[in-house]
Write a structure and sequence with these properties.
homodimer; about 350 residues; alpha+beta; Creatine Amidinohydrolase, Chain A, domain 1; Creatine Amidinohydrolase; 2 domains; six-stranded mixed beta sheet; four-stranded mixed beta sheet; about 35% helix
Amino acid sequence: MADRISLLRRRMQELNLSAFVISSLTHLRYLFGFSGSNGLGVITEEHQWLITDRRYREQVKHEVHHAEVHIIQQDLFEPIKKRKLFSKGMRVGFEALHLNFRDFSRLQKAFPDVRLAATEYVIEKLTISRLPEEIEHTRRACELARRVWETILPVIRPGMTELDLSAEISYHSKKLGSERDAFEPIVASGWRSALPHGIASRKTIEYGELVVIDFGCVYEGFCSDVTRTVMIGQPSEEQRRMYEAVKEANRRAIAAAKANIPGAELDRVARDYLKEQGYDKAFGHSLGHGLGLDVHSLPRISPVSKDRIPADSIITIEPGVYLPEIGGVRIEDDILVHNDGAEVLTDIDRELIIIE
Amino acid sequence: MADRISLLRRRMQELNLSAFVISSLTHLRYLFGFSGSNGLGVITEEHQWLITDRRYREQVKHEVHHAEVHIIQQDLFEPIKKRKLFSKGMRVGFEALHLNFRDFSRLQKAFPDVRLAATEYVIEKLTISRLPEEIEHTRRACELARRVWETILPVIRPGMTELDLSAEISYHSKKLGSERDAFEPIVASGWRSALPHGIASRKTIEYGELVVIDFGCVYEGFCSDVTRTVMIGQPSEEQRRMYEAVKEANRRAIAAAKANIPGAELDRVARDYLKEQGYDKAFGHSLGHGLGLDVHSLPRISPVSKDRIPADSIITIEPGVYLPEIGGVRIEDDILVHNDGAEVLTDIDRELIIIE
């Protein structure tokens, strides 16, 4: 993690920041290994601090090795004031996406004579191109997802509820070694499969329905994120056609992915194909997103993205077609982007599986 | 949910607000029934809006009945501008704890001539005293937790990992009807049980260890939150003494709880008793907290709380003792506060359970 702090210090120099305040819990884990639910990080040229409360007094001894730890009673900014870490006129960056207005006001009030600089995506951008061990962690998380899929597939049957299946996913995920669910699993069947983000409900899975199953595992904090769609009973012609179109859109996008491609261009590969197939209005979300400590991270892969996809980044490719009358299909893979192409990390079959 | 919106409008009048912008997802669920992951609510004297993105176009048709829905392409503030919902000089409240600095800046830029008013805990305070159906939902969530506990207790054995047990909790929780885990279950054994908030790890549960098990269920969005501590093998004298002290602190605090007691006074009942027993420094967190749509809600029950506990509120009582060399004990119940006392909703035995 010392590497990560060095990367951040270099970036701070480029941004002309003498100090950087970290309020995202995901970033505290990334920089310091801290997994608690309340904390603040501060990096200056000389210091690296983790500030947290008494509940974590013991935990930090085990988790945090690259920071000076300060335990507070109430106010996370207290040790900074007390030890005069910020001097007059100093330019101090903060995370505009991860600091709420209340804490921003407190920061401003506590340090009226420093120059606060709102920043966005500073640490997020550092993590887009992954260090080798970080790639390895995501690889493990993807491998766990593959094993979860193989374990739950035989369990899926009509008559079970979406929540039943979601319970099986979370259970086997942990039993196989995932730290937690990367996110609440999505299990959406029949009319609910046309909701791109419907988490599992008490609805029963029935014959004639498509079932969209979207879940992820976590290894050393790094996430995987995979979706497969199965058919309960024989598919109608339209259901089969939707499925094949999404599968081909997924294939084309993966084939097109390589370092430096603009996110919007990659999105277009899948979107144009689905449009040709008559599904342009049925694909109402982005093609994918970066995948790291957060499930949704940079780079963006959407029609309006201005990001390029760098080498050694890990992204999802997840085209979908959603028709309220018929249901939905989504097929999502995680890929590692190389200079000359991409490597699929979610090694799971993409042919339509029919469950009788 | 119409009741809840009326409550909010009344509160807005008291605060002299002509409009209120809601950015907390929990509050969007509370006011409108919306369970998506991106949205904004706006309440004015005449209008009630839910703004979200295309992914939720279908979902809102099923979930949202008490609001006009606006689907955006990119910017959640867009429909407000377009339809000129805010007029010049209007006082518009926002949630300072739930709006990040970036979105605050956007709001300010989009509406330079309205008067933005930072508010804290407006909706949180509306929900402290519960409506009858909300009490019923928490009651169901507590009943689910009781059934989960009865189901997992026979499964606990030395040799399993903390994650194995955590997997069982989440699994049975969903199978019994919980919408999701109220939070990632805490399973902390041996030295890890002295970490008040250590989530489950790959550590194996061994003979001679205390195991702190803290989990919660969710019913119609409302959470339960319960902790029991079990002993693997026969307890040492000190482990037994710790357990009995925490059990008695829990009992005394529950007996003292009634409407209008200050949160700090209730905290003191348990803290003073633990101090008498020589454990004053070993209880390093608050006695409890309000429990609702969020697991941690108002009122606060801690040494520095300035809140009173109103009638019809639901709170946790969770004293603990943590000794790094020996382990930890926490016993947590959820109680409904009445004028003349409190009713325990988590009807689970509190005697020390020894697993051989």
